[in-house]
């Protein structure tokens, strides 16, 4: 299954860290320790001042298409990830338009968040989305 679903699960904190091939490539490319990434990634909110974790997050978001080649955040892709999670939470009561509206309401408050690096920006956005999703009720 694509990492996007795993990312949503991580965002809502429902499951332990689940490594996909792109994330494993980032660990290898950056020479980062998996246990350290797991330990930091499990913290809520995730710390924004850990350079290695920020680099890992940037790398994995790029590989997942959440950061575009030009370095900007891919808000369309983030919307799709959140939309999938909203639809999953709706269960049998699926309503596509209501899910679209809910995803938009969840993502919009996070759109103007920036950090000092792309990685820090990604971590800050992740924390914002996590907070939005924790408070979401279908």
Question: How would you concisely characterize the structure shown here?
Answer:
Helices cover 63% and strands 0% of the residues.
Keywords:
single chain; 138 residues; mainly alpha; 7 helices; PBP_GOBP_sf; signal; odorant binding
Cα gyration radius (Å): 14 Å
Tell me the structural class.
mainly alpha
Please state the average pLDDT score. 87
What CATH calls the topology is Recoverin, domain 1
- CATH architecture classification name: Orthogonal Bundle
Q: How do the helices and strands follow one another from N- to C-terminus?
A: HHHHHHH
Principal-axes shape call: globular
Largest sheet: none
Number of domains: 1
Number of helices: 7
What's the β-strand tally?
0
Taking the alpha carbons of the first and last residues, their distance comes to 24 Å
Portion of residues in beta strands equals under 5%
Catalogue the unreliable spans: 1-15
CATH level-four homologous superfamily name:
Pheromone/general odorant binding protein domain
Task: Please provide a written account of the structure.
Keywords: Signal. It holds the Pfam family PBP_GOBP. Residues 1-16 form the signal peptide. One of its GO terms (molecular function) is odorant binding. The chain has 138 residues and is mainly alpha-helical. It has one domain (3-134): Recoverin, domain 1. Helix content is 63%, strand content 0%. The protein contains seven helices and no strands. The protein has helices at residues 3-12, 21-30, 34-41, 51-64, 75-90, 96-107, 118-134. Helix 4 (51-64) crosses helix 7 (118-134). The relative contact order is 0.16. Residues 1-15 have low confidence and may be disordered.
């Amino acid at each position: 299954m694509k990492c996007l679903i795993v990312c949503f699960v991580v965002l809502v904190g429902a499951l332990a860290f689940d490594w996909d091939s792109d994330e494993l490539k980032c660990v290898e490319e950056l020479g980062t320790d998996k246990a350290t990434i797991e330990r930091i990634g499990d913290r809520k909110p995730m710390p924004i001042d850990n350079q290695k974790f920020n680099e890992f997050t940037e790398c994995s978001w790029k590989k997942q298409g959440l950061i575009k080649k030009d370095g900007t955040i891919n808000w369309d892709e983030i919307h799709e990830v959140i939309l999938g999670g909203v639809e999953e939470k709706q269960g049998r009561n699926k309503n596509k338009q209501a899910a679209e509206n809910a995803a938009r309401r969840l993502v919009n408050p996070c759109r103007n968040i920036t950090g000092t690096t792309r990685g820090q920006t990604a971590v800050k956005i992740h924390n914002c989305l996590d907070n939005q999703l924790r408070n979401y009720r279908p």
